[in-house]
Design goal:
The complex is a heterodimer of chains A (about 180) and B (about 625). Chain A has about 180 residues and is mostly helical. Chain A has seven helices and no strands. The radius of gyration of chain A is 20 Å and the shape is globular. The termini of chain A are far apart. By secondary structure, chain B is α+β, with helices and mostly antiparallel strands. Chain B contains 16 helices and 28 strands. In chain B, helix 8 runs parallel beside helix 9, helix 12 packs antiparallel against helix 13 and helix 13 packs antiparallel against helix 14. The radius of gyration of chain B is 26 Å and the shape is globular. Classes of the chains: A mainly alpha (about 180), B alpha+beta (about 625). At the A-B interface, helix 2, helix 3 and helix 7 of A face helix 8, helix 10, strand 19, strand 22 and helix 12 of B.
Chain lengths: ~180, ~625
């Protein structure tokens, strides 16, 4: 258990995609209680700096582990199949088609009678889509090797896509629903 | 080096050594100081029993070489008679740039110095030019003195509260003011978080709470999860230029229009109108109708004002706070029904219309039974008591967030976010840069804060140059720049060239405010002015530091030296400690500082091992069930 460990080891978790959120949060708090700079406010300067570094890493690990997308990207990297952001791969045309339809719906949402309900519907659809992708990735990452890595990377790229649309939905909610 | 104090919950590591610490609420309108005595937090009053110190500073010309600075109620009596030398609501200028002043111009009657190098607005007074940092330091000095007198001893440290939505420059300015006032800042604490501590420990509530904090000049909303002594901020939002002052201004401007007064408004009249407006506002919180008369020079106005009229006047201002609240709920991914309580903080939440609208938004009666003026200072005192080591931090843990995104300027004047808002602090993120010209050895970095996409719409925090990049072909150098936000919400930057491992020198020049040496110099000057012996004071402080360090390393060695160190490693630390002991009894300031440094370095690895061991202990201390992963999830 030290800073050179990977995030799963740091949190004493098995290196697998599905995580118990509650256990994660309990561990997070226990680790923060031990390393948070507040515990070292009356300590020496070196030790205060050390505490800031430890707590920052524990925070970052928590951020990565609690996000289904960041966790997936992190796992690929750990296993040596890091996603290259420069490289744009060919995407499943059916998936792309659905995304385009969704975006169109989003663009029209401000013109419908009840934008709130319309947005909620889109949100739910995105949520379902993300869950499907997560499930797919969990299975893929279990048996990751050179031949099926591309498929797993592809799943993560789709997740990135969905998450991006989700943030656009949030942005729209912000604009439309704040009076 | 204290290393890790592995003590039982509730037990102070050194029970016989109670340290004096205070919590300070440095407010726009008034300020307070509180401390923990015999287990409970209390606000410290002055000799006349007044708890609230008006945040007003009056500067008169020096008399016989002595400063004539008054703070608080005495200064406030000068507000109308001597408006140019009576500084009110200085918090609104903290961490602001000269160009920001123009947006405040009509609110502040002061004479600003046109040209200055600091980028800060400098105010001309009868006692010379003063910066917002210096004015705030005068307020802090009075509060610190109040604390010293009440506790009968020198203060070990202070927690100073700031609005949660304060940006980096505003936080740094506050910390500089405290340093200038001779205070050791244990932590800058966000005001709504401070209120949540006082409220949470008082009520023992668990669950998600919203803290709505509307003060004299600033508004904050924080959504927190309270659970088992952990105060976890889920999101925060706010407006650092919206508060009770703006309610007063709305009233004053309405009266001015209604009076059909056509001459120029003098600074004295402006102050008189604001003072009257404040009084009208306060009366309308208790009654439905107020009859007011204002006479100042040739200005005269008389009228009857109703609460309904006032509600209409502030409607858009209150609506602005509600919009921010909705955003904070969304950021926290929390619905109104998930909240267990809404806590009202800040004097402006006494306004019935504010309570009504907040109640409607959150669909419940907001909690108003904790004194909204005292709760922030009380929370700060509780936190100070933990930080100074009187109370074990096992009982209380604060997890706060970064209020505004931090980023850098990229091509085309765009801001690229590196640390997102609402990320739990401390946080560190690294970003890689490369050179665009062959043989390029330096690179300019512009750090900005804010949510907008264009750099021009964000707040400029600092510019710095990375130097000493090894000359390579364009695009070959890989410069890793690390941004770190500490528990005070303050940013530091470090840089390294990855392929060669060369560390670049980063000198951050704040866009506004003071550089560290300037603060040190001002501190020296002010101490010299007070005819104190700077040398003696510094020596005393260093000796205290040395003693503290010795005690904590000895303590750590006794606990873990046997298990975590081999004989040679232990010997090395012991030798460093003995050297420090030898010089600490002497009067060579530099030797003590040097040996403190060396002892710290010698025990650095030991400290890291103790930290690791403590993490391991935290994990193994749990039941197996708690860390078993649910595969069905």
């Amino acid at each position: 258990m030290s800073l050179t460990d990977n995030y799963f080891q740091l949190y004493d978790l098995p290196e697998q995609y599905s995580l118990d959120d509650n256990a994660l949060r309990v561990t997070y708090r226990d680790l923060q209680r031990k390393t948070h700079p507040d515990k070292f406010a009356h300590a020496s300067q070196q030790e205060q700096l050390l505490a800031v570094q430890y707590a920052a890493i524990i925070n970052d690990a928590y951020d990565v582990l609690t996000s289904s997308l960041k966790r997936a990207i992190y796992m690929l990297k750990l296993k040596g199949f890091e996603i290259d952001p420069q490289q744009s791969a060919a995407m499943d045309p059916l998936f792309l088609m659905r995304q385009m339809e969704l975006r169109e719906e989003l663009e029209n949402v401000s013109r419908v009678d009840d934008p709130e309900t319309a947005l909620e519907k889109i949100s739910e659809q995105l949520e379902r889509e993300l869950e499907d992708l997560e499930e797919g990735f969990a299975a893929q990452v279990e048996v990751l090797n050179d031949s099926n890595a591309v498929a797993a990377q592809d799943t993560v790229k789709k997740m990135q896509f969905v998450v991006k649309v989700q943030s656009e939905v949030e942005h729209l909610e912000h604009e439309l629903l704040d009076v | 080096m204290a290393l890790l104090q592995l003590s039982e919950p509730g037990m102070s590591p050194m029970p016989h050594l109670r340290k004096n610490a205070v919590g300070i609420d440095l407010g726009t309108t008034h300020s307070l100081v509180a401390t923990v005595r015999s287990g409970s937090a209390e606000v410290i009053a002055d000799h006349q029993g007044r708890k609230l110190l008006p945040s007003v500073v009056h500067y008169a010309p020096e008399l016989d070489g002595l400063e004539q600075i008054t703070v608080g109620d005495d200064a406030r009596t000068q507000a109308v008679g001597d408006p140019l030398n009576t500084i009110i609501s200085i918090k609104r200028l903290m961490g602001r740039g000269v160009e920001d002043v123009s947006t405040f111009d009509h609110q502040m009657p002061y004479r600003f110095v046109e040209q200055n190098s600091s980028g800060m607005p400098i105010i001309e007074t009868a006692a010379g030019n003063v910066s917002p940092v210096q004015v705030s330091a005068e307020i802090l000095k009075v509060l610190a003195q109040r604390g010293r007198e009440a506790l009968g001893e020198e203060l070990e440290g202070a927690v100073i509260t700031v609005p949660a939505y304060f940006d980096e420059a505003q936080r740094q300015a506050t910390k500089d003011a405290a340093t200038l006032a001779g205070l050791n800042v244990l932590r800058l604490l966000n005001e709504p978080t401070a209120a949540a501590i006082a409220y949470g420990l008082d009520q023992g509530d668990e669950g998600i709470v919203a803290v709505y904090d509307l003060g004299g000049g600033t508004f904050d909303i924080s959504i927190l999860r309270l659970q088992a002594g952990v105060f976890e901020v889920l999101s925060t939002g706010g407006d650092t230029a919206l508060g009770g002052d703006d309610f007063d201004r709305a009233i004053a401007e309405w009266i001015l229009t209604d009076s059909q007064y056509e001459k120029n408004v003098t600074p004295s009249l402006s102050r008189e109108l604001m003072e009257s407006a404040r009084s009208i506002k306060e009366q309308l919180s208790a009654q439905d109708v107020v009859n007011a008369t204002i006479e100042q020079g040739d200005f005269s106005w008389q009228g009857e004002l109703t609460r309904a009229w006032f509600d209409g006047l502030i409607e858009t201002l209150v609506a602005r706070t509600l919009k921010v609240c909705k955003g904070a709920l969304r950021d926290a991914k929390v619905k109104v029904k998930d909240l267990v309580n809404v806590v009202m903080v800040g004097g402006s939440t006494r306004v019935p219309y504010v309570r009504q609208r907040v109640g409607e938004l959150f669909d419940r009666d907001p909690m108003v039974d904790i004194d909204p003026d005292l709760v922030v200072a009380t929370g700060a005192a509780l936190q100070a008591d933990v930080l100074v080591g009187n109370k074990s931090s096992d009982d209380m843990l604060l997890l706060d967030v970064n209020p505004l995104s931090l980023g850098i300027e990229t091509m085309g004047g765009l801001a690229e976010k590196i640390i997102p808002r609402n990320a739990t602090i401390p946080i560190a993120k690294a970003q890689e840069f490369t050179t665009y010209k062959d043989g390029q050895t330096a690179m300019a970095v512009h750090v900005v804060q804010g949510e907008r996409e264009l750099v021009a719409d964000c707040r400029s925090l600092a510019r710095f140059e990375l130097r000493g990049i090894p000359p390579m072909v364009a695009g070959a150098a890989r410069i890793l720049v690390t941004f770190q936000v500490d528990a005070d919400g303050l940013l530091s930057v470090s840089a390294k060239e990855v392929t060669t491992g060369i560390e670049s020198n980063v000198t951050v020049k704040p866009s506004y405010g003071l550089e560290e040496e300037q603060v040190t110099q001002m501190l020296k000057d002010s101490i010299a002015h007070a005819k104190d012996d700077v040398q003696a004071r510094q020596l005393r402080e260093k000796q205290v530091d040395a003693d503290g360090l010795l005690a904590s390393i000895e303590n750590a060695l006794a606990e873990d030296g046997g298990t975590l160190l081999n004989a040679a490693e232990r010997e090395e630390i012991e030798v460093a400690l003995q050297r420090l002991r030898d010089v600490a009894v002497g009067d060579d300031l530099h030797a003590i500082a040097r040996e403190i440094d060396k002892a710290g370095q010698a025990s650095n690895e030991f400290a890291a091992r103790r930290m690791d061991a403590s993490i391991k202990q935290a994990l193994s201390g749990k039941s197996i069930d708690a860390i078993t992963v649910d595969k069905e999830d």
